[in-house]
Every structure is written in C-alpha cells, then in structure tokens.
Design goal:
Blueprint lengths: L6 H28 L2 E4 L9 E7 L8 E6 L12 E2 L2 H5 L9 E9 L7 E7 L2 E2 L1 E6 L2 E2 L4 E2 L5 E4 L9 E9 L5 H7 L5 E2 L2 E2 L3 E7 L2 E9 L4 E9 L5 E8 L5 E9 L6 E6 L14 E9 L2 E10 L4 E4 L3 E4 L2 E3 L1 E6 L12 H13 L4 E4 L6 H10 L2 E9 L5 H15 L5 E8 L8 H7 L6 E2 L12 E2 L6 H8 L4 E2 L17 H9 L6 E4 L7 E2 L7 E2 L18 H9 L3 E2 L12 E6 L10 E9 L9 E9 L9 E5 L11 E7 L5 E8 L2 H4 L13 E4 L3 E6 L2 E6 L5 E5 L5 E2 L2 E6 L4 E11 L2 E10 L1 E9 L4 E13 L2 E6 L5 E10 L12 E8 L17 E3 L4 E6 L2 E7 L5 E4 L19 E6 L25 E15 L22
Parallel strand pairs: 26-27, 26-33, 27-28, 28-29, 29-30, 31-32
Antiparallel strand pairs: 1-15, 2-3, 2-5, 4-13, 5-12, 6-11, 6-15, 7-14, 8-9, 8-10, 8-12, 16-17, 17-20, 18-19, 18-21, 21-22, 23-24, 24-25, 34-35, 36-37, 37-40, 38-39, 38-41, 41-42, 43-44, 44-45, 45-46, 46-47, 48-53, 49-50, 50-51, 51-52, 52-61, 53-60, 54-55, 54-57, 56-59, 57-58, 58-61, 59-60
C-alpha cells in the first residue's frame, strides 16, 4: 500500500508535514530576526548526520580514532556490541552488559556576533551518561539518563569568531545503578551514543527562557513566563492567535529585574477546543520590548482543553467521557534504531489514525519532540512516560529527569497523562515533581502489571483476561490497561479484541486501553550481514513490521475501532437500503461525515485484471446521529440492485479520510453462475480395477482408492497428473470407510462413499464438462478447535492463489474483522508473522467466506468453489505463535475446507483448551452440536476464456480497498 492509495488522507498528512516543517523553518528564521540564533553541530535526523571524530573503547571498531555520524546509535555505525535489555535473563547472573564508552570530538566555530549573547549547548538525547567539555573545560555536571533533553550554559567557555573544541564522553552503562535499572534492564533493545540532535542556541542577554501554558475548555488562559537576566523594566506583550493567524487576544504588562516568573491570565471567548477528532491549535507569542523595540520573543502552540479524572466515573475531556483506543509505540527504525526523522514520526501517527485509534502511549520513555507536535496537529491523546521498566529511578536521579521531561513537553495539548514508570518501575516519591513542574497539573498515572496499584482513581493493570477485566470494570476504579493483548507474532492485538473492546465500550468506568505494541522491533544487525533481528520472541510484538509492513491485525483494528460502527453481516431478504449504524465518535455528529455507496460486479476467474467493476454509485444522505447515539444510513438504491454481485458502503470522516469500507456480497450460487459449467460433449468413461476406480471426462480424470474411498490422484484437462489426494478426511471427529458405489447419470458419473462414525457420506460427481462436485455430510457434538474436511497437496508445488472471498489477509476465529469480499490474488510466500522477510499478506492461513479459489501450481491450475456461504479454506502449514511448540495446532492434511477454525491466543495465553478461552466468548473452542452439509466444486485445469484463450494471473494482492 502506498500513500497514493489514499488521496484525501495523503493530502491531509502531507499538508500537516509541510505546515510543521514550515513552522520549524519559520521559528529559526524568526529567531534570527528576534535575537535568538541556532547552530546545529550535528545532523537533524537519521538522514542528515554530521561526521564527528570518534573513539570506541570496546567491541567492534574499538581502540582507534575514526569518524561517526551524529546523531546515531553507535551499534548501527558498526561500533561496540549489541544488547537486548533482557539479555541478563537469557544469559543468567554472570552476564555482563557491554559497557563500552564512546569519545566524541568536534571542531566548530561560533560567530563573533554571539559574544554578547547567552549561549547554550543542547543535547536532545544521549545514551546514557554524558560528560561534555568545551575547549577543555567541563560544561557542567555529568548527565545521567538517555531519553531526556539537557543543556549547559557555555557562554563563558566559548571562543567567538574562531575554532572551538567540543568533547563528549558517552558511557553506555550509567554510573548510577538506578538509571541502569530503569532504562537498560528492559524489554527492548538498548544502545549507546548521541542519538538525537545537538545544537547551540544563542539568546540576547535579556531573554525568555521558556513559557508554560494552561488553557482550559472554558477559555481561561494562564501562562507562566520565565525571563532571564532582566536588567531593567521591560514591556511584555502576549498575543494569542488562532490557526488562521487571527489575533484573538492581546495582553501586556511589565517585567522587572527581580521577576523570576511572570504570571499571565486572560480569557478567550468561545475558543475552538482541542480533542483527537478536532485538534484545534492556537499560538501564543510573548515578546519582550525595550523602548518599543522587540529584543526577544518566544512562541508556542497550544490547545484549549480540560482533562478530568472523575473517580468512579470515567476520563473526561472537555466535559465528555472518552475512551482510549490506543497502542504502545517505541521510537524505532530498523536501520538506525532510535534515531529517526520527521517522515517516520508522521508515518507512525498516520498508521495509528488509519487504524481509527485516538491514543498512543510512549513506551517506555519520552519520544522525539516532532512526534508530539504531529500528535498535537493531527489529534492523538498521548501518555508521556518516564522510563522505568519494572525498576525505578532513585529519587535523586529521577527528579532531574522528571523536570527535563515535563519542561520540554508540558505545552503539548496531546499529552493528557504523565506515566511514572512501567510495571513496578514507579518511584512514588517522584509523583510530586510532575505536579511541581507541570503548570497545567495533568494527572499522573502508574502503569503496572499487578492488581491493587490504582493511582489517581485509574487502575492500569496489564494483561488481564476478558473475565478478570469484566470484574475490574465492575469495581470502583476507572480501568484503563496501559498494555493488553500482547501482539507477539500474529497473536494478540486484534485477536480477541472485538470481545475486549465491546466490553470496554459498554462499561461506564472503562477508560479504554493500549494494545502492546505498534512496531516489531527488528534491528538491522551490522555485525550479522544486515539481518533483521527481533531477539527471538522478545521483540516481534507489533501490528506492523520494522519498516511498517501491515499485518492482519492492523486492518482488523481498523474495523473494530471504527467510530462509524456497523455490524450488519448480511443484507436481509427484505433489505430496503437502511443500514443500522452506531456513532462511536466522542465529539462528531455523523451528519459531518460522508457516505458513498457502490453496486459492483466481481471479475471472473479468467479475467486477468481481477478485482471488480463499479456498475452504479451514489452518495447516501449523512444521518444526524449524535455522538454515542444510534441511527440508520439510508441508501436510495435503484430497483435492480439485486442483479449486481455486491453492495459497498464507504464512510469518510469530516476531514474526508476513509474511516472504513463495508462490502455485502450476493449469494454464492448466483456468483458461480458464470464460473461453473456442467454440460459437456463426451460421456464420462469409467475404468475399474480391484483397488481403484477411474473416472474420466475428456482428459480430466479422478482416481479413487476402493479400499478407503479416498482420492489417489487427479489428471488435469491436459491429461497430466495432479497430486491432489488423500481425502476427504474429517479434521475433527471420527469416521471409518464403509463402501464405495458408482452409477451413471445423464450429466456425469456419481460416486458415493459411505462411512460409519461422524462423517456420513461423500458423494463425488464428475460431470461431462470435467467439473467435479463433492457433496458431504458430517455430524459433531462437543467442543472442537476446527471442523470440516481436508486433503493433501505438495506445498512446494504452489505458486500462488486467486480467490473471491474476504481478504487479502488470513483470519482466526477471534479475528474475523478487517477483511472484505473481493477478487484477490497473492503469490506464494512463507512468511511467519513477526519474522523476516515481512512479506504481507501471508500466503498461508485460514481464509474466509470463499466463493471460489484458484491455486496456481507447477502442475497447472485448479479451482475450488463453494455452493454455500461461509467456507473457510486452510492453505498449508503455518502457525500463529512461535515457541517450543508452535501454536495453535493445525488440522490433518494441508489443504482444508472448513466450517469452523480455531482462535488464536497471545504470548501470555497459549493453550486453546485453557488460557486462550479466557480471552472472551469468540476465543473459546467451537461449540458444535448438529449436522453440516456442503457442496464443493473442483476443476483441475485452466479455465478457458471464451474468444481469448487461456489467461495467466500474476497480479499482486490488491490493497487499495484499505
């Protein structure tokens, strides 16, 4: 999928990025005009690194001076050694982390014009302990903590108008044991190096150091301004402007030499409020003036919004009860680790918005500033987190880092909570410092993995099952799990989510929750020929791959989290165009959305283009349905609408971005009318021996084993052998062969195989045309992982598949969402979700609602078609979760036609008979009590296209629907 598949979406995000970049450029250019100047000593991101002198003390490329790109993680530049934070668990007590140091040097010049200014050197992030010298003198005390912006006043250490020397010694392991405990003994890759930009910032002697904004939904605006080195009374002027640049408020006053902070309070009438659906931003500009001339000014964007935790009730934004549809996000890129660029930041926000999410948790450290700016502008609720993975910072170390984190990030309206550590990595003594430094007094929460640790009225307990979640939601606290449904491999994430989300959505005291996690943390190993390493089962936890390759859960979450909530499965016989809809927006009326419908016809198997053609289309009247209310979308369909293959409905939000597209397919028998042909010129010929029964229609043939009733082999319409064999066999239940009979009928030859046990019969018929039908019946009573019949075909012979059914992704019993009916095609791949080479969609798996499927093999093509709806086709051998024993177990055979398939658990719930069922009703085994009858059709050979000869289908999987 490319951005070009989403014209409106791409346009919106592209515009946002242009605005952000333009704003950044404007701030720099304005700074020059207003007396503030910035000089980058490093590159600005992973695409614009600057080379510094570098000496590594251990590991690869160590013991000599060379060059390194800054910013970077030095392992990705070929230095030192790799460590995954949990290596101590893998290798035991005697394991020692690589503790190499990196020594950096850079010669740089400072403009002579800066001599009468205050100059700071700023490090946006350096792992882990950093000691800085300027011209041989220490810039300040050693900084300890990897993910936090820090700066030193180097005014008196610089030589102006000539060369200067910067030296930085960066220690991978901190001298403070609590910093290592909080940051490096963690369940993620740990690196070394200056991984975010470094720059000099020069200010006039009298300047504004920073500002802190608190803007409420009622229009109340408060601001703290922190002036520096004020020598005489100066005038300040503050102007608030809206997104169009219109000044909506202007206030002024005087700052005196003794003032360490200036407090400003005013009111803006009827402000446009900030929330995830309408992220309205304002800008405040505060200027210092001397004799009417601006000597310095500072600008910040902000939003008017009020956050409340109403204990025992819910989380409220601007007076509206909201729920987090969230996910955990590491700052990550496989080639460069934690050194990113603005496009990656934007892409990640875009991915979450495409999944209809409204929230993100920063795991497990503060992100790059640009990511927060994009969350502000596009609308995501953010949980900004102090590091602390199961172990906490000491109070002495932590209070400095809390200050750095809060002061940097406090003006972002997207941040609604501060997270004090993770899963027991909480030092409660640090709570007070969040409040001390955050002027707007956002709530602090404690993400944890044990019950009974609620804080500020919110229980964040991780990885509860469906039923314990239900109990917690009935308790007195608000429940908002900051991690749930662990997404290792293909498990978790959207598997089980429909049940969980329905439970959360309908529970008054739910605050929503955050899936673990967004990205598979696969790192390109510069010490292993560039393989992408996910550290076994530790890091393949994402719903997208390292380069943001979409997995099936991505699309399923898009449907489950859709704020336009439609659950209609099939169009009723008396359908009049009315589709029930629930509005799951918090702030948007459905009248602000757009609904488009189409009547489509699917292309036939022998059409090389695949897909569908639009026959008629229109716009449905957008219903006036208030947030959290229900109503109907009314489509005014033409009288002949039933003569088309399918009806589609697409919903677009007020920004014209696609929310979701639903498809309702016509019945299978109608869809097969122009696919299957039973009439043929020649009578079926029968050849019988003591052990085999051979039926042939022209060159097409089918051979049965008379001793067990199973297929021995096929011949295609060229007379060549086809190794489809070994069935039908029941995948659940028992059966024993009884006898086999055959008889001639007008249009072909019928073979009836009877059984004792759960499989009652299998009636094969080869028609004069060469098509083969299979009617079968079985009866089951009990709980089963799967149900249906199975055959064998050599997987290594398969080249690809094309099908009419839901796709393009595979499904599980508890993850049926995110796939729609269309004609899809996919070439063979052996992808195991979460592992290289991340080719999606996976070729192998369970595929649903199949009308017909054509397999392309080295022996030719063969077709399977279903008379009845809701057929699952199992394609070959695969698993959902890796481990000592891959999970879940597969049916016998390797090409199966099923009426029930298994659910998939999570890393923390692997047993289908035990923990998986605890993920909710749809995660239980299949409860079957009754008889199932089906008719399948087979054609072993390439279908002819009248007047055009044979066709070859190689079109890749169609993705534009998503």
């Amino acid at each position: 999928m490319t951005l070009n598949n989403y014209p409106a979406l791409f346009s919106r995000f592209k515009t946002a990025l242009v605005i952000l970049l333009a704003t950044a450029s404007l701030q720099v250019s304005d700074a020059y005009a207003q007396g503030r100047q910035v000089k980058y000593l490093s590159g600005k991101d992973n695409r614009t690194n600057t080379m510094w002198d570098f000496y590594c003390t251990g590991g690869r490329k160590s013991g000599y001076w060379t060059k390194i790109a800054v910013p970077s993680c030095w392992e990705q530049q070929g230095f030192g050694s790799y460590n995954y934070g949990r290596d101590y668990k893998t290798y035991g007590k005697n394991f020692r982390f690589a503790d190499e140091q990196g020594i950096y040097k850079l010669n740089f010049q400072v403009p002579q014009a800066w001599k009468n200014m205050d100059v700071y050197i700023v490090f946006e992030g350096s792992m882990t302990d950093t000691e800085v010298k300027i011209n041989g003198k220490a810039a300040g005390e050693k900084h300890q903590g990897a993910f936090y912006e820090f700066k030193y006043d180097v005014t008196n250490k610089l030589k102006y108008g000539t060369n200067n020397l910067l030296e930085a010694r960066v220690s991978k392991m901190s001298a403070d044991a609590s910093v290592n405990n909080a940051e490096r003994l963690a369940d993620y890759w740990v690196f070394g190096g200056i991984f975010r930009p470094v720059y000099l910032a020069a200010y006039p002697k009298q300047h504004i150091n920073r500002i802190a904004v608190d803007a409420k939904a009622n229009g109340d605006f408060k601001m703290q301004v922190y002036p520096e080195h004020i020598k005489q009374n100066l005038q300040w002027v503050a102007q608030i402007s809206d997104a169009k640049g219109k000044v909506v408020k202007s206030v002024s006053g005087t700052v005196k030499p003794a003032d360490s902070v200036v407090s400003i309070a005013t009111t803006v009438s009827n402000p446009l409020l900030w929330n995830s659906e309408t992220p309205n931003l304002y800008k405040v500009n505060i200027a210092l003036k001397s004799a009417g001339k601006i000597i310095h000014q500072h600008s910040e964007k902000f939003g008017f919004r009020t956050i409340e935790i109403r204990k025992g009730d819910g989380i409220y934004l601007n007076g509206v009860n909201i729920k987090m549809k969230g996910i955990n996000r590491h700052s990550w890129w496989p080639e460069t680790g934690r050194t990113l660029n603005d496009d990656i930041q934007l892409q990640d926000v875009k991915i979450m918005k495409e999944m209809n999410m409204n929230a993100v948790r920063m795991s497990h450290y503060p992100p790059d500033k640009k990511f927060l700016e994009i969350c502000d502008s596009l609308g995501l609720y953010v949980l900004d987190e102090l590091a602390g993975w199961q172990k906490a910072y000491s109070t002495a170390a932590g209070k400095k880092l809390v200050k750095e984190m809060v002061i940097r990030d406090l003006n972002h309206p997207s941040i609604i909570f501060w997270d004090n550590g993770n899963e027991g990595g909480t030092n409660k003594e640090l709570d007070q410092y969040f409040t001390q430094y955050d002027f707007s007094k956002r709530p602090v929460i404690h993400p944890h993995h044990r019950p009974g640790n609620a804080f500020n009225g919110i229980d964040c307990n991780h990885y509860e099952d469906y039923y314990s979640t239900k109990n917690i939601l009935a308790d007195s606290n608000i429940y908002m799990p900051t991690e749930f449904l662990h997404a290792q491999d293909d498990g978790g994430a959207a598997t089980g989510l429909a049940d969980f989300w329905d439970l959360h959505w309908k529970s008054k005291r739910s605050g929503g929750g955050f899936i673990w996690a967004l990205v598979d943390e696969g790192i390109v190993r510069t010490d292993q020929n560039g393989i992408i390493d996910v550290n076994g089962v530790n890091a393949p936890d994402g719903v997208v791959g390292p380069h943001r390759e979409r997995e099936g859960s991505f699309y399923a979450m898009r449907e489950i989290f859709s704020p336009v909530h439609i659950t209609l499965k099939d169009l009723p016989a008396n359908f009049s165009g009315s589709i029930p809809v629930e509005n799951r927006f918090h702030f948007t009326n459905l009248s602000q959305c757009t609904f488009n419908w189409e009547l489509i016809d699917y292309r036939k198997p022998n059409d090389q283009n695949g897909g569908y053609t639009v026959k008629k289309k229109g716009v449905a009247l957008s219903p006036s349905v208030a947030p959290l209310a229900s109503g109907n979308v009314q489509i005014n369909l033409p009288a002949d609408w039933k003569s088309y293959d399918a009806l589609t409905l697409s919903a677009y939000d007020p920004h014209k971005d696609l929310v979701y597209r639903w498809v309702w397919k016509n019945n299978n028998e109608r869809l097969l009318n122009n696919v299957i042909s039973f009439a043929g010129k020649d009578q079926v010929k029968v050849t019988e021996t003591d052990s085999t029964l051979l039926l042939k229609a022209g060159s097409m043939g089918i051979t049965f084993n008379k001793k067990n009733g199973q297929i021995v082999t096929m011949t295609n319409n060229s007379g060549d052998p086809f190794l489809f064999s070994g069935g039908p066999m029941l995948v659940s239940g028992s059966s024993a062969f009884k006898d086999i009979k055959h008889r001639q009928e007008n249009d072909g030859e019928l073979v009836e195989v009877s059984y004792t046990g759960d499989l009652k019969y299998a009636r094969w018929k080869i028609f004069n045309s060469g098509w083969v039908s299979l009617d079968y019946e079985y009866e089951l009573k009990g709980n089963y992982p799967y149900a249906g019949i199975t055959f064998n075909y050599p997987e290594n012979y398969v080249l690809g598949a094309k099908w009419l059914g839901r796709g393009p992704y595979r499904v599980w019993k508890n993850r049926l969402q995110g796939v729609v009916d269309d004609v899809w095609s996919n070439t063979y791949n052996n992808t195991q979700t979460g592992s290289a080479p991340w080719i999606f969609p996976e070729f192998k798996g369970y595929f649903t609602n199949i009308t017909w499927m054509e397999l392309n093999t080295v022996q030719g093509k063969f077709m399977i078609a279903a008379k009845e709806p809701d057929l699952y086709v199992r394609l070959f051998d695969f698993y959902g979760l890796s481990g000592v024993k891959p999970f879940p177990a597969l049916p016998s055979g390797n090409l199966s036609f099923l009426d029930a398939i298994p659910p998939l658990g999570t890393k923390l719930a692997l047993n289908i008979d035990g923990n998986t069922s605890k993920l909710g009703p749809n995660s239980e085994p299949n409860h079957i009590n009754g008889t199932t009858r089906r008719t399948l059709y087979f054609y072993f050979g390439q279908l002819e296209q009248e007047g055009k000869g044979k066709q070859n289908f190689t079109r890749p999987v169609k993705d534009e629907l998503f």
